Amino acid sequence: MPVSDPEAKARALYEARRTRTPIPPFTDDDPSLGMADGYAIQRELVPLLLADGDRIVGYKVGLTSKAMQRMVGVDAPDHGPVLASTVYRDGDTLSLADFIAPKVEAEIVFVMGERLAGPGVGPTDAARAVAGAAAAMEIVDSRIADWRIKLADTVADLASNGAVAVSSRLVPLAGLDTRLVGMTLTRNGELLDTGAGAAALGDPLAVVAWLANVLGEHGVALEPGHLVMTGALHAAVPMAAGEVYRAEFDRLGPISIRVTGDAAERSSTQGGPA
Amino acid sequence: MTINHEELAARLSKAVVERTAIEPLTDEHPDLDLEAGYAVQRVLREQAGPLAGWKLGVTSRAKQAQVGVSAPVCGFLPAAAALDLGEPLHAGELIQPRAEPEIVFVLGRDLHGAHCTAVDVLSATSGLAVGIEVLDSRFRDYRFTMADVVADNTSAARYVVGTPVPPAGIDVRLVGVLLEKNGELVATASGAASLGHPAAAVAWLVRRLALSGEGLRAGEVVLSGGLTAATPVAPGDVVTVSVDRLGTVEMAVTD
To answer: Was domain A6-269 assigned CATH 3.90.850.10?
Structure first.
C-alpha cells in the first residue's frame, strides 16, 4: 500500500526545515513505511524547495558504509539532492542556527564533466564522465526529532542532507585510485578519525555508478557540473559552536569549516550559497 | 607477594607452547605495574633468539582513551616470528589470532636517543612497507591490563612485511589503508591513525628504548602500530592489506 498523503508529509518536512523545528518520525505512525515511500515523500518535498528559488546542483549518497547500512537495516545506499542554497566553500563559517542537530562527515566529492544516465552504468563509465575529485564535507542534519530515523524517514528528509562544503581544488582522476585516498579529520587540531575512499561502497566511483543507475530509473541524469557527494569515510561527528573541522585528503588536499552559534555571522561573512 | 619476572615469563611461554590461554597475571599480582610488565617482556626477549625489530601497540588515541592511558606500548619482533611473503599463517599454532594493518619502517641506519623525533625517524628510514601483524593474546578473550599486555610482548605472534619502497615524497600520515578479509572490506584508515603520525610512534619507541640504553639498529623493522581494530582470523580466511603508495600484502590462513 503506498504511503498515505505524501504531500502532507512533504509539507511537514518543508516546515520543519524552514522553522528548524524537528518533527516525529513518519514511521512512528506507520512502521510499514519503506524506501519507496520515503522517495515518494522526497519527490513531493523537492518541488516545494525549488519553488523558493533553490536549484539542484548535485546529489548526496548516504548509507554507503556497511556499518551505516546495518544500523538502518538496509543493504543499499540512499540519495537526495544537494541544493544550491546549502553549498559552502573551503574555509567558510557555518552557523548552528541554520541546522537542527548537525553532524560533520568528511567525503570525497566528484564533479561531473559529462552527462551520465543509467541504466547500465558501471564504475568505468562513471570514471569517464567525472571531471575530477575534490575534498568535501557534508553536514548531515535531521528534520526528524533526535535523529530517531528509520529508512523511510531519512530518505523522505533528503537523505538527511543539511549542507555541503566543497574545495575548489578539482583533481583529475587520471592515475588516482580513489579507493586508496587516505583522510584525516581533526576538530580544533585534535585528530578525530581517519579513513580511506573505499569506506564509501568499496569505491567512491561505484557510488557515482549506483546513483546514475538509480536516477536513471526515473529518467533523471547526472549533468555536467553536478556534484556527487560519495558518503562518509568515518562515523559522523556532532557539530558544536566554536569548533573548526578540517579534513585532509591525500592527493586531494584539505577542506575546513568553522562553526559558530551566531546566526548573524553567516550572512555577514560569506552569504552561504556559493 | 613478590613478583618473580622469570616465573611469569615462563607462564606466558607455556601458554604459547600449549596454545592455551591463561588468566591475566594481574589477577594474581594486582601490583604488577607497567615497568614490571616490561621486565617480564625482557625475560621473554632474552629467550627469543635473534630479533628482527620492534612493534608498537595502543597507538590509537581512541584506544588510549578507552583503556585510560596516554602513551603507546612496545614489544619485540623475533626473527622466527616473521612470515615470508606468500607464506600462510598456521592458525593452529595460535590461540586466538587477530590481524591488523600496519605501516612498517625499515631502518637504514642505527637510531637512538632520548630526544628522538619523527624527523629523526624519517631521516633514518630506508624503506616503508605494508605490514600485517598477527596478534595472539595469551590471555583469555584478550582480557588484560596494560601491565599484562606489555608482559605478554604486546600480544605479538606473527608478522608479514611487504616489499619496502623508498620513503622520499610519501606522507605516511595521509596514505589510505584498507583491511580486507575474504574480499570484503573490513575497515579503512589513514596513517595518522597511529599516534597522529606513524613516524611519531616510532620516535616514541626510540625514546622508550633509550631508557634502557638501547636503540634501533640498521636493518631492523618497526611495525608502527595497528591502524584499524584487529580482525579475528580463522583457517580459510585471506587477509589483504593495501596501503596507498606502498602496495598490498596478502596472507592466507590455514590450520
So the answer is: yes
